[in-house]
Design brief:
alpha+beta; nine-stranded mixed beta sheet; 31 strands; 28% helix; 21% strand; binds guanosine-5'-triphosphate; binds sulfopyruvate; binds manganese (II) ion
């Protein structure tokens, strides 16, 4: 430890989020029994004693210089941005080219989710199940308390009240995040409904359900980086990181890991899914939810612009990452718990995703992209020629000849969903939107056809449970390796995956009008390693078939793996750059590849031990048998 310190390897450099706010802005000094807001900025009082007690506890432990209760106001935001600029937590961008937008650089050792340091802390290991890192709650609390002891000395502790979900939804959850990072506060303001609204919803009931999240940067040292979830306590503690997915505790930690645990207990679903609306020229609208693993196309699909040939069709976004779904009238109804998009930047262009480009034109917090000489942002895949010179995501000089990438492959934007030109009008509806189809998908260079449809809910659950994808830069570790990622929830299911599969099967039984279930693969490659399918807007052609299936007006081939469109079932009018042979390759089910696939399914289930419901083993046997018949 000493040695490392001396070498300074893990010590934060120039761009840092560790400075304190000057005294004149201090809202409250120790001790904190009667938490009251400063005159002028903010005027809410959290009336719930349980929150006050908890904040006081964390204060005693971390010993911050100041406590700053966030109210979510404009004024507060302006103030925090000004402080962040002064302290180099943010870099101001060109007001003409990127109005009200800022660049943040995270520590180079801290640029993605860390699955190896993410823990589910349940009383027994079995509750966390075979896919999660488990650690014993009491021991973990005591280890984390050790790390947090005095951790905010000389620093400001921010208390961020927020809600997840539309304000009037029965699904909506309350959270409080304590953090010592201004970047986190500014991001939470974009990503959640923050401030006053949460305090009001909490009310005075001492038994009200709310999530307690504690985050501290510590010294941003990977050896002291832990993202710990305590589902039974509705609590999260995250230390040692400043990267989005690890520290915006509303998102993966609450909305998915704790969320999935609560969902099972309370009879709903918390899923890593986008939600989109699709309207036909005749004005008939359907909603679709789709689970693709991290960096596999959710944001892009949720903002899709149909090709010219699909004149009159319109796609709108309800959500781009997370869906909370409940059962009503025998159907699934979905809400997006978030208020903004935390999206992958590289590859985003006016060609691939014009709606995302419009969304991030202003009011955007960029992380780890490149900075041009005229204070604009740049990344690989942006429209136009690369700049002759830029500062890369690490803060070093960069030219087009540089070996390094200018933007980190997992560089991100945080932007309010209000900026999305195709935001769905129902996005605030607390009842949610009725889901006609659920789509699973991943990055698969072979085996998986462009699209196929499950025979029924149970078969669809099997398809989700066995789906796989090549790994991406969204999490640290090797990229491009095929791994099973059930329902795109492998890193996000907060309890035993066997119970999660069971919950899916049971949910299906409660649905009288279940959504149809599909699997897609935009990433199949030809023998020479090129994508066979153009993707992006052209994915409308697949979505069109899916909608036609929901309407019962289009045919398919019944194959061993499910219903697959015949060439004539897909509208390929004016599709450029895909030959009929390529189309056949895209839709092909290769028996040999599927033998291996089925045996990989079996191996995966074996690796999970005895937790997999027997219905799913039966599904595999049926699948294998269909290949033989
Ligand atoms: P998370 O935010 O990590 O959950 O990712 P996501 O699932 O929202 O993925 P996103 O839409 O941001 O896409 C990730 C990467 O995949 C980007 O580099 C996109 O350019 C690329 N991508 C998205 N859709 C397609 C597609 O249809 N075809 C191809 N070839 N690439 C795509
Ligand atoms: C993902 O990795 O699936 C994301 C980005 O959506 S993060 O919030 O960092 O997890
Ligand atoms: Mn995601």
């Amino acid at each position: 430890m000493e040695k490392r310190r001396k070498r300074g390897k893990f010590v934060l450099r120039a761009i840092d989020d560790t400075n304190i706010i000057p005294d004149r802005y201090v809202f409250m000094n120790n001790p904190a029994p009667a938490i009251s807001p400063p005159a002028g900025i903010g005027d809410h009082k959290p009336a719930n004693q349980a929150v006050l007690d908890w904040v006081h506890e964390v204060e005693q432990l971390t010993q911050p210089e100041n406590i700053f209760w966030c109210d979510g106001s404009e004024r507060e935001n302006d103030f925090l941005i000004a402080e962040s600029l002064k302290q180099n937590v943010l870099i101001r961008l060109n007001e003409k080219k990127a109005p009200r937008s800022y660049l943040h650089r995270s520590n180079p050792n801290d640029v993605a989710r860390v699955e190896q340091f993410t823990f589910i802390c349940t009383p027994t290991k079995a509750e966390a199940g075979p896919t999660n890192n488990w650690s014993e709650p009491a021991e973990t609390y005591s280890k984390l308390q050790g790390l947090l002891k005095g951790a905010m000395r000389g620093r400001t502790m921010f208390v961020v009240p927020y809600i997840m979900g539309p304000p009037d939804s029965p699904l909506t959850k309350i959270g409080f995040e304590i953090t010592d990072s201004k970047y986190v506060v500014l991001s939470m303001r974009i990503m959640t409904r923050m401030g006053e609204i949460a305090v009001k919803r909490l009310g005075h009931d001492p038994k009200a359900e709310w999530n307690r999240g504690v985050h501290s940067l510590l010294d941003v040292n990977p050896e002291r980086r832990f993202i710990c979830h305590f589902p039974q306590d509705n609590a999260i503690i995250s230390v040692g990181s400043g990267y989005g997915g690890n520290v915006l505790l509303s998102k993966k930690c609450l909305a998915l890991r704790i969320g999935s645990y609560l969902a099972r207990k309370q009879g709903w679903l918390a899923e890593h899914m986008l939600i989109l609306g699709v309207e036909s020229p005749a004005g008939k609208k359907h909603y679709v939810a789709a689970a693709f693993p991290s960096a596999c196309g959710k944001t892009n699909f949720a903002m899709l612009i149909p090709p010219k040939h699909f004149a009159g069709w319109k796609v709108t976004t309800v959500g781009d990452d997370i869906a909370w779904m409940q059962i009503r009238d025998g159907r699934l109804w979905a809400v997006n718990p978030e208020n903004g998009y935390f999206g992958v930047v590289p590859g985003t262009s006016c060609k691939s995703n014009p709606n995302a480009m419009k969304s991030i034109e202003r009011d955007t917090l960029y992380t780890n992209v490149a900075l041009t000489d005229d204070s604009d942002v740049w990344w690989e895949g942006k429209d136009g020629a690369p700049p002759k010179h830029a500062i890369d995501w690490r803060g070093n000089d960069w030219t087009p000849d540089s070996k390094e990438k200018a933007a980190h492959p997992n560089s991100r934007f945080a932007t309010p969903m209000r900026n999305n030109p195709v935001l769905d009008p129902q996005v605030e509806d607390g009842n949610g939107v009725p889901i006609s189809a659920i789509i699973f998908g991943g990055r698969r260079s072979g085996t998986m056809p462009l699209v196929f449809q499950a025979f029924d809910w149970e078969h669809g659950t099997y398809i989700g449970a066995t789906m796989a994808s090549e790994t991406t830069a969204a999490a640290t570790g090797a990229v491009g390796q095929v791994r099973r990622d059930p329902m795109a929830m492998l890193p996000f299911c907060g309890y035993n995956i066997g119970d999660y599969f069971r919950h899916w099967l049971e949910t299906g039984k409660r649905l009288t009008k279940p959504p149809l279930i599909f699997h897609v693969n935009w990433f199949r490659k030809s023998a020479d390693g090129k994508f066979l399918w153009p993707g992006f807007g052209d994915n409308m052609r697949v979505l069109g078939w899916i909608i036609d299936r929901c309407e019962g007006r289009v045919g398919a081939n019944e194959s061993a793996i499910g219903h697959i469109p015949r060439l004539q079932d897909l509208d390929l009018g004016e599709l450029r750059g895909v030959t009929p042979n390529q189309m056949r390759e895209l839709l092909n089910v290769n028996a040999e590849e599927w033998q291996k696939e089925i045996s990989d399914h079996a191996k995966f289930f074996e690796s999970l031990g005895s937790v997999v419901p027997k219905e799913l083993d039966k599904q595999r046997e049926n699948l294998a048998a269909r290949f033989k018949s």
